[in-house]
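Can you give me the bound-state structure? Components:
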Amino acid sequence: MTTTSDPVGDTGTAVWLHGVVAGTATPARLPGIAGTPVRAVAAAGLVAVVSDAPLSEYGEAALRRNLEDLAWLERAARAHHAVVDALSRSGAVVPARLATVHRDDDRVARVLVERHDELAGTLARLDGRAEWGVKGYVVPGATPRVEEPDGGGGAGAAYLRRRRAQLTAREEGQRVAADGAAAVHAALAGYAVAARRHAPQDRRLSGAPTAMVLNGAYLVDRDRWDGFAGLARELAEGHPELRLELTGPWPPYSFVAEPEAEPAWA
Amino acid sequence: MGVTALAPSSADDPLAYRSVALVDLLDRVLATGVVITGDITLAIADIDLVRISLRALIASVGALAPPDPEAAP
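Here's the bound-state model for the whole set.
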C-alpha cells in the first residue's frame, strides 16, 4: 500500500468494506464496489468482505464530491447492496454502512480484532433473520368528513367557517393516520424480533401522491416471514386510512446497531 | 387498502430485484447503525452522510425543491 502516509490523496487504492460474516463463510466471486471481485480479510474468527476502491474515486475528497452526485450515489448504493444481499443469502452478515473505507487490509483486520465481541454478538443476533419494510401512506378522504356548520353572517363569516372546517378535517385526517401508523407499527413490532421506525420519506423523494406516516423496519425470523406478510395484509384491511406497502426480505441493515442506540423515532 | 409486496432480494426474479427503490435503499445503507467507521470516512464523519445524500436526491428532483440557502457551498 502506498496510501498510508497520504490518506486524502488521489493515488493508490483503499479498501471498501461491504460487511462482516462469520469466519466459516467464504464469499462468492462477486463484483465489488469498483467492479473488481470482493476479497476476504480474515481475523479473530471473522471475515470482512472487502473490495478495492481507487482513492481517485473513494478517497476523502472524492467521496465528499461523489456523495453529492445522485448518479454516483445510486451506482455505489446498488453495487454495495448487491454484495451485502448476496452475503445475506448464505448466512448472517453485519452490513457496513455505505462508504466505510479503510486505508488497507491491515486496518480492516485490526477492526475485526478490536470489535470482535460486538461483531460476533451482532452476527449471532441476526442469524436466521431478515428485515422487512412496511411503509404507510395517508389515504385521503378515508376519515369522516366534518359537517359544515350552518350559520348566519355574511359571505366573509361563511368563508371563515368553511375554512375552519376544512382545516379541522385535515388535522383530524392527519391525527387518524398517525394513530393508525402507531397501531400498525405496534402490531408488527409485536410479531417481529426487533423493530424501528425510520423517518418518513419526503414526498419529493418517495414520489408518492400522499404523505408517508410510517416507515417501519422489522427484523423477522425466517420461519415467520409468511406470517408477517399475512399480518401486514390483515392490518391493511383493518386500517382503511392507510395504504401499506411491504418490502423485503432485506439484509438486516436497520438492525446492526443495538436497540439502545436507536433514535427517538422508535 | 391493499398491501403492495415487492421482493427486492428475490434470487429467482431479477426484475423484482432491480425494482428496489433508491430511496428505500438509501434509508438502509446510509441511515442505519454504524458499527464500523472507516479511516477515510472517519475524516468526513463531521458531515452527515444522510444529509449529503438527501440534498443530492432533492437536487435531482430540481424544480420541485425550494432553494435551500443553508446548502450553498
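A couple of observations. Chain A touches chain B through 75 residues (CB under 8 Å). Helices of chain A lie at 55-58, 60-66, 70-89, 105-114, 116-126, 155-191, 203-206, 225-238.
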